Amino acid sequence: MLKKFITADNSESFMNEEVGESYHSHTGGVEEALKKYAVPCKIKELAKTGKIRILDVCFGMGYNSAMAISVALEENPDCEIEVVGLEYDQNIISKIQEVNPPIAFFSHYKKLTPQALGFTEGNVSVKVLLGDAREMVKTLSENHFDAVFFDPFSPKTAPEMWQEHFFAEMYRVMKNSAILATYSCARMARDNMSKAGLMYDDGPILGRRGPGTIATKWMDIFSNP
To answer: What is the pLDDT of residues 103-136, one digit of tens each?
Structure first.
C-alpha cells in the first residue's frame, strides 16, 4: 500500500507501508534529488560535454533523473541525455500521474506508465526497465554510464540490493570517469562497494545525521573541479 505525504520542501512522495519506508526523504524529495544526486554526480559539468548517460537505480517516480535532466538542460539546452531506470514496482510508476514536483522536466515524465515505459523528448530519451534490478542491469552495456543514482530502500530493509555482486554490476556499467551517488553511508554498503572495486567518499549531509556516499572507479575523480 502506498500512502501519499508531503515532504518538508512541499514536494509530494509516498510511503510504502508494506516496506515501512518512504520513496523520498521527509526533509524534501526535490531538494534530495538535487543535492544528493545531481550535484554530487556533477551533472551540470557533464552537460558541458554535450552528452550524458544516467542509470537511475530504483527509479520510483523519477524525481532524481528528472532533476538531473532539468539541471543539464539549463546548463546546455542542446545536451543529449539518456536515462535508463531500473524499477520493480509498477505501482510506483503509476503514481507519477499523481504528483507535480517543482522540477522543470518532470511534466514529460507523465508520459511514463506501467504500459508505456519510455519516451523521447527532443534530445532526451528515458527508458524504464521493469523487473528485478539485479537481473535487469545484466542487460546493459559495460562502461556506458556517466552517473549512477543508487536509490533502493535502505540496507536494513532491502539488504539484497546492497550486496557486492550488485555493486560489481554498477562497476561494470560505469565509465571510468563515472560517479555513483547514494543516500546511505551504511558500513555494509560501503564495504560491499569496496569489495566490488569501487572507491568511496562521503557525500552530502542532507536530512540525516550521516552523509551520503559517492563512489568511483578512480579516487582522483573526487579531486577534479
So the answer is: 999 999 999 999 999 999 999 999 999 999 999 9
Query: The sheet that has 145-150: what strands, in order across it?
Result: 118-121, 124-130, 80-87, 51-57, 145-150, 174-182, 213-216, 199-202
Q: Nine-digit cell at 198?
A: 569501487
Alpha carbons 18 and 92: distance in angstroms, whole number: 13
First to last CA, the chain: 44
Domains of the chain: 28-223 (3.40.50.150)
Q: What is the dihedral of CA 30, 36, 56, 219, to 10 degrees?
A: 160
Q: What is the pLDDT of residue 191?
A: 98
Query: In sequence order, what E strands does the chain have?
Result: 2-6, 12-16, 21-22, 51-57, 80-87, 118-121, 124-130, 145-150, 174-182, 199-202, 213-216
Strand partners, 37: none
pLDDT digits (tens, 9 = 90+) for 136-175: 999 999 999 999 999 999 999 999 999 999 999 999 999 9
